Amino acid sequence: MNQAYSLPFVTIGKDVTIWPLAKIVMPNRISIGDSVIIDDFVFIMGGVATRIGSFVHIGSFTSITGGGELILEDFSGISGGVRVYTGNEDYTGGCMTNPTVPEPFRKPVRSSVVIKKHAIVGANSVILPGVVIGEGAVVGANSLVTKDCKPWTVYFGSPAKELKRRKMEIILDLEEKLRETLYDSQGCYISQTIREQNKLTDGIQ
């Protein structure tokens, strides 16, 4: 049922789950780290490039489109029903619009979206092209993000506005402890299978 290892990704790590009803377009432009879950009914277009880090979750009914570049750093998360646009149309009237129109009659604008470590995007939010969501930032549900979000700050609304700071010390401390537990001395991720085998071996001893 897991389609993660049947698609021609640029790279893919260990313990990745992509549920069978997720739709991945242009996987040859997508890189995925370790311990990633992509739910059913997610739609991802690889675009120029898509880089998904480790310990990332993408919730059901989220779509990532636009043909640009997407970066999802380690420990970031996208909740259900989110719309991420990495590109847009020229709506100024200088050309025609929509994907059925070929160039030079249409001039799509490719951009990027970057979601930094520990950042969270709440359900049914919309992220527009050119946005950087800073490390540890939180975007509340049903928000429209048109501008960069500061690190470790909570945003909400349409358009999203800064509400308050988010505590970071505990989260960063937990990340450090997780890396001590789930990575070896060379900094390589230890798969769940190996960890379970090690537990059995320790139990026998």
Describe the structure.
With 205 residues, this protein is an alpha/beta fold. The chain has 2 domains: 4-166, UDP N-Acetylglucosamine Acyltransferase, domain 1, CATH 2.160.10.10; 167-205, no CATH class. Helices cover 13% and strands 29% of the residues. It has helices at 169-182, 192-204, and strands spanning 11-12, 17-18, 23-25, 30-32, 37-38, 43-45, 49-52, 57-58, 63-65, 69-72, 77-78, 83-85, 87-88, 109-110, 112-115, 120-121, 126-127, 132-133, 138-139, 144-145, 153-156, 161-165. The two termini are 36 Å apart. The model has no long low-confidence stretch (mean pLDDT 95).
Sequence-ordered SSE layout with sheet pairings:
Layout: E1 11-12, E2 17-18, E3 23-25, E4 30-32, E5 37-38, E6 43-45, E7 49-52, E8 57-58, E9 63-65, E10 69-72, E11 77-78, E12 83-85, E13 87-88, E14 109-110, E15 112-115, E16 120-121, E17 126-127, E18 132-133, E19 138-139, E20 144-145, E21 153-156, E22 161-165, H1 169-182, H2 192-204
Parallel strand pairs: 1-4, 2-5, 3-6, 4-7, 5-8, 6-9, 7-10, 8-11, 9-12, 10-15, 11-16, 12-17, 15-18, 16-19, 17-20, 19-21
Antiparallel strand pairs: 13-14, 21-22
Q: CATH superfamily of the largest domain, please?
A: Hexapeptide repeat proteins
Q: How do the helices and strands follow one another from N- to C-terminus?
A: EEEEEEEEEEEEEEEEEEEEEEHH
Largest β sheet strand count, sense and barrel closure: 8 strands, mixed
Distance between the termini: 36 Å
| Oligomeric form | single chain
The beta-strand count equals: 22
Shape category: globular
- Average pLDDT value? 95
Side-by-side strand order of the widest sheet: 2-5-8-11-16-19-21-22
Instruction: Please report the first level of CATH classification, the CATH class of the largest domain.
Output: Mainly Beta
